[in-house]
Amino acid sequence: MFEKWIHEKLEDEIGTVRYNHSLDVMKVSMELAKLYGENEKKAALAGLLHDCAKIREKRKLLKMAGEFGIILDNVMKNNVELIHGPLGAEVARKEYNVLDIEILSAIKYHTVGKEDMSLLEKIIFIADYIEPNRKFKGVEEVRKLAFEDLNASLILAMDNTIKFVIYGGGLIHLNTVKARNYLKLEKSLE
Ligand SMILES: Nc1ncnc2c1ncn2[C@@H]1O[C@H](COP(=O)(O)OP(=O)(O)O)[C@@H](O)[C@H]1O
């Protein structure tokens, strides 16, 4: 769907398993875009590139974040895996020539979310959570809900993630708390 070099570079950078996950996220993102009236091509590109900075080596991740001038908050310093969102937006812009700020923002916030998310941000967040190879407990319910009530599916996914992180003794990213609270308030006004 996109130029061959994009696919080749992506697979080379993040490995075949992550690349295949990205293709699945791309497909689900397009389905959701069609259902909820978002631009399918934008959803496809954001879905494809959402993990473009998913680098395993902690040192390389931190080095790149430094080079791109990304300011790390305490939660990101504690769990460097979370850096791949904001770093991904920078990599997508500089290395994959993505200029669309809505796509870049969807990549940036795909793991932790943010307060008052756009439709595209919501779609990429939930597509990453429900793509067909995700097998964890509770995913079925979120998967079903995503096609019936997008906001409700996001709340459930965020609740699950918050519980999962607490269970593992980790730090919850504040964006996720803000995103969840905003969605809950929004829902109560529906
Ligand atoms: N909102 C959050 N706050 C803190 N940690 C989180 C949050 N969301 C995800 N994490 C943690 O960050 C890591 C990466 O998450 P994610 O990118 O969703 O994983 P995956 O590799 O399955 O795509 C996981 O270990 C997860 O526990």
From TrEMBL:
Catalyzed reactions per annotation: P(1),P(4)-bis(5'-adenosyl) tetraphosphate + H2O = 2 ADP + 2 H(+)
Annotated HD domain residues: 18-133
Keyword Metal-binding: yes
Gene Ontology MF terms in the entry: bis(5'-nucleosyl)-tetraphosphatase (symmetrical) activity; metal ion binding; nucleotide binding
Domain of life: Bacteria
EC number(s) on file: 3.6.1.41
Keyword field: Hydrolase, Iron, Metal-binding, Nucleotide-binding
The keyword Iron is assigned to this record: yes
Annotated CDD domains: HDc (cd00077)
Name recorded for this polypeptide: bis(5'-nucleosyl)-tetraphosphatase (symmetrical)
